[in-house]
Design goal:
binds S-adenosylmethionine; alpha/beta
């Protein structure tokens, strides 16, 4: 069993649901948050007991949601105290602009939180309204300034591009605003809007943004970020050198992590398991047995190898050149244009990253054909 180096804690509370959101969130039930935190602690203690004193400590903790910044910092602090941690652990939290008052932020820093990620999504009020956000662009800027002056080691923001109401001009305005604030940021995540089933946007069924426009927006963002020292290290993530998210890098490097809370997922390097996704069910299970596992899947070695290729393609770690090329020659000539090779590593170019899934498929086919050929030779 791989060491579980990351701890993910799911905090499901939100004041309202955003139009794009398919995450496991609740906008009532907040009154029961103390009971929920008791359940989180019980789940964590159950895992630590299973380790029988062998466990050294988590390297990273990530509070996600939902809106973890909605709950009192003392609840977050209590959970941090309950989790064994290595020295210099990264402890990150997702914060929303409307719950970013300086007092609350100072208490999170005092509790040991090292990294805050602000859900901004856009600096265009029209887009924010379309997303059903409960803040405007001005509120987002005030929040970023408050977070940046609160003493976290690292500040990140989330953006979403490609809303049907977003024009090229609107996106370029968002990027201009971001660049103006970039001195305050060590990290940024920018996701292409996904229309998920059972969301308000799915039901609205507005015509989606053309792929070519999405690609243009991504490439312009990537170029502008590089100019201010924020470098891409995963398809949707950019950072200053050394400020990459250590927690998310565990996911992308195929490492082990424990998830606690409703709907959270865990992985030990071979088996994935996931928790009950509704609040009442989660509480009933943990209060009854200390656990709330709803299902699990043991990956085969070949599934793990495939995931490694897919994850490697998404990150600046890239792939071992041996995976894409037999000495001096690409397995598939058409792939060559999408990669840059340095030493033993083959990484996708910015344009290549836009085609990562299709390229992964081509590589897997080439690897499969190579294997068949070896078997018939
Ligand atoms: C777990 S979510 C919520 C974080 C935070 N509570 C907030 O709303 O600002 C984390 C991030 O995922 C991104 N996200 C969520 N749903 C998405 C979707 N359907 N398409 C693209 N990005 C999405 C958003 O950028 C969001 O900030």
């Amino acid at each position: 069993m791989e060491k579980l180096s990351g701890l993910y804690v799911h905090i499901p509370y939100c004041t309202s649901r955003c139009s794009y959101c398919a995450f496991a969130v609740v906008h009532n039930g907040y009154a029961g948050r103390h009971r929920y935190f008791d359940a989180l602690k019980r789940e964590l203690e159950g895992y630590l007991e299973l380790q029988g004193g062998e466990f050294v400590g988590f390297e990273t903790v990530s509070f996600g949601g939902g809106t973890p910044s909605l709950v009192e910092p003392e609840l977050i602090a209590g959970l941090i105290d309950a989790a064994p941690l290595i020295d210099e652990a990264e402890i990150s939290i997702e914060v929303n602009p409307e719950s970013c008052d300086p007092q609350r932020l100072a208490e999170l820093v005092a509790a040991g939180v090292t990294r805050a990620s602000v859900g901004v999504q856009s600096f265009d009020d029209r887009v924010l309204k379309y997303f059903g956000r409960s803040h405007d662009a001005h509120g987002a800027k005030v929040a970023i300034e408050a977070v940046a002056s609160s003493g976290f080691d690292s500040v990140s923001i989330d953006l979403v591009y490609g809303a049907p109401v977003e024009s090229e001009r609107s996106w370029d305005y968002t990027v201009d605003e971001l660049i103006d604030l970039s001195d305050l940021l060590e990290h940024l995540s920018a996701y292409a809007l996904q229309i998920e089933p059972r969301t308000k946007l799915h039901w609205m069924a507005d015509p989606p943004t053309e792929e070519a426009d999405l690609a243009g927006r991504y490439l312009r963002l990537d170029e502008r970020l590089a100019e201010v020292g924020l470098k891409n290290y995963e398809i949707s993530n950019w950072s200053r050198p050394g400020a990459e998210s250590r927690h998310n890098s565990t996911y992308w490097n195929g490492g082990g992590y424990l998830g606690i809370g409703m709907s959270s997922h865990s992985f030990d390097g071979q088996t994935r398991w996931w928790n009950v996704a509704n609040l009442a069910g989660y509480l009933a299970c943990v209060e009854g047995s200390g656990r709330a596992v709803a299902g699990s899947e043991r990956l085969t070695d070949s599934q793990i190898a495939i995931e490694r290729i897919m994850l490697g393609l998404r990150t600046s770690r890239g792939l071992d050149t041996a995976t894409v090329a037999v000495p001096g020659r690409f397995l598939d000539r058409e792939l060559e244009d999408w990669f840059e090779i340095s030493g033993d590593s083959a990484r996708l170019t910015a344009r290549g990253r836009l085609l990562a899934d299709a390229i992964a498929l081509r590589i897997l086919q080439s690897v499969e054909e190579g294997r068949d050929k070896d078997e018939t030779d």
